[in-house]
């Protein structure tokens, strides 16, 4: 996704110096130009990476617009995997692969660090602007933003966090330089950093004590206990290591640091049967109190393991650079992916659920494996067998993924269309389609 997420081209300028004509005769010049063109085509851009990114943005658009009609492809309410739950790991994976290519050579670590921070900050602020409430939704035609309720985290913010963590790993953590060392040992300090972040995540997830908590429900119709027109609801917890939607440590950290009003107001867990949500989106008064509470699926604690997904993608990028043959690359990618898949499945079976909202370890491994295997398949089809015409649409989407995210996924196109109405703002075609067709 743009220069912030997806610089997927190799450093061609340095390579081109080696192909300058040594003789002045026309035949030698034509031969050298042919080599330059071949080098550009084969090495200077990994087409499958653009295709992979394009597939990711396509799936995001699909689940965003079709998810309400087809719940099976929308996000799982809590535990489990649906199609939508693979999209975020795919973006983090491709960001990691791209980082390995961008930072193949680092002349100045301080300059590279500053550029990475600036890119991450730009992406983070863009995410706040697009998903923080500055722009109205499809059915809400109000303008302006309440700074007391602005959403601080979101999709682009999570990618920005994963990007800067992986970039700092690549820039500052040393690696072995001996060519005869096994690949895993070359990047042993990277994996030590991964283990450290994972230990912090597991320690906070299972070690923090989550006390009972209260929140104001401004949207409830109940008037049993009210303060200034809002209902006060209490969630009973007093537990450690709970992975349910009500009493997990991730939610507690976000409520304390970000503030409950700055979290996502329509979490997927409201679609659980226990919440008994109506077709109009209202939660039943008989539902547990936590069904009314906001929850940030791109929260602080889960961003630790989300960053690990980006670092895993970084390792796939290292394989891309270190191994020149297609067979070696595919064998190493496949081995890594299958290992992650087996380990993640075992963890899911022994009690660590596949959960996107918490970005659990099993979810991290299984979705990273799925991304790796998908990337292997696309690399085989596009870069090995050259089926570029078949995938040209996805390749184009991958090269313009940030623009597509801004215009389509963030509803900017929809908002522009809503600007044309008949007599009343509610008499526009988008609002009519949503209110008369989608919500029925």
Q: Mean pLDDT, rounded to whole units?
A: 80
Global geometry: globular
Low-confidence stretches: 1-44
Along the chain, the helix and strand elements come as HHHHHHHHHEEEEEHHHHHHHH
What Rg is obtained from the alpha carbons, in whole angstroms? Answer: 24 Å
Count of helix runs: 17
In angstroms, what separates the terminal alpha carbons?
35 Å
Beta content comes to under 5%
Label the structural class: mainly alpha
Count of β-strands = 5
In order across it, which strands form the biggest sheet?
A: 2-4-3
Helical content band:
40-55%
Q: Major sheet: size, sense and barrel closure? A: 3 strands, antiparallel
Protein name: Heparan-alpha-glucosaminide N-acetyltransferase catalytic domain-containing protein
Keywords: Membrane, Transmembrane, Transmembrane helix
InterPro entries: HGSNAT_cat
Description of the molecule:
Helix 4 crosses helix 14, helix 4 (47-66) runs parallel beside helix 15 (401-409) and helix 7 packs across helix 11. Strand 3 and strand 4 (230-235) form a beta hairpin. The protein is mostly helical. Helix content is 55%, strand content 4%. The two termini are 35 Å apart. The longest helix is centred in the C-terminal third of the chain and has 24 residues, at 326-349. The radius of gyration is 24 Å and the shape is globular. It is built from 17 helices and 5 strands.
What's the short version?
This protein is mainly alpha-helical and 440 residues long. It contains 17 helices and 5 strands.
């Amino acid at each position: 996704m743009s220069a912030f997420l997806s610089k997927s081209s190799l450093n061609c300028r340095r390579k081109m110096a080696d192909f300058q004509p040594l003789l002045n005769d026309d035949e030698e010049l034509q031969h050298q130009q042919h080599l330059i063109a071949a080098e550009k085509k084969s090495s200077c851009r990994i087409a499958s990476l653009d295709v992979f990114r394009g597939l990711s943005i396509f799936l995001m658009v699909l689940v965003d617009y079709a998810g309400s009609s087809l719940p099976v492809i929308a996000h799982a309410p809590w535990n489990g995997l649906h199609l939508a739950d693979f999209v975020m790991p795919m973006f983090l994976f491709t960001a990691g692969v791209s980082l390995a290519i961008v930072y193949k050579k680092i002349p100045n670590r301080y300059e590279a660090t500053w550029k990475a921070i600036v890119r991450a900050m730009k992406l983070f602020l863009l995410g706040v602007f697009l998903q923080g409430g500055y722009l109205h939704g499809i059915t809400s035609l109000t303008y302006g933003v309440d700074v007391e309720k602005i959403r601080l985290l979101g999709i682009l913010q999570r990618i920005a966090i994963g990007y800067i963590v992986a970039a700092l790993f690549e820039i500052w953590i040393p690696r072995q330089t001996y060519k005869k060392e096994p690949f895993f040992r070359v990047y042993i300090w990277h994996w030590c950093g991964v283990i450290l972040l994972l230990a912090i995540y597991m320690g906070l997830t299972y070690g923090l004590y989550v006390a009972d908590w209260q929140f104001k429900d401004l949207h409830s119709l109940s008037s049993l206990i009210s303060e200034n027109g809002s209902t006060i609801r209490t969630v009973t917890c007093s537990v450690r290591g709970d992975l349910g939607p009500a009493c997990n440590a991730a939610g507690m950290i976000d409520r304390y640091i970000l503030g409950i009003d700055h979290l996502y107001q329509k979490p997927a867990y409201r679609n659980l049967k226990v919440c008994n949500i109506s077709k109009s989106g209202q939660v039943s008064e008989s539902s547990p109190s936590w069904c009314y509470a906001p929850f940030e699926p791109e929260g602080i604690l889960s961003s630790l393991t989300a960053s690990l997904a980006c670092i895993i993608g970084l390792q796939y990028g290292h394989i891309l650079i270190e191994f020149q043959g297609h067979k070696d690359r595919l064998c190493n990618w496949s081995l890594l992916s299958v290992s992650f898949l087996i380990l993640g499945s075992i963890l899911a079976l022994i009690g660590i659920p596949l959960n996107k909202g918490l970005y659990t370890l099993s979810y991290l491994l299984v979705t990273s494996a799925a991304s790796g295997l998908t990337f292997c398949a696309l690399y085989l089809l596009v870069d090995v067998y050259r089926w570029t015409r078949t995938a040209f649409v996805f390749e184009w989407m991958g090269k313009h993924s940030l623009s597509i995210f801004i215009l389509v996924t963030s509803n900017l196109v929809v908002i522009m269309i809503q600007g044309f109405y008949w007599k009343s703002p509610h008499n526009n075609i988008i609002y009519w389609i949503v209110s008369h067709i989608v919500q029925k």
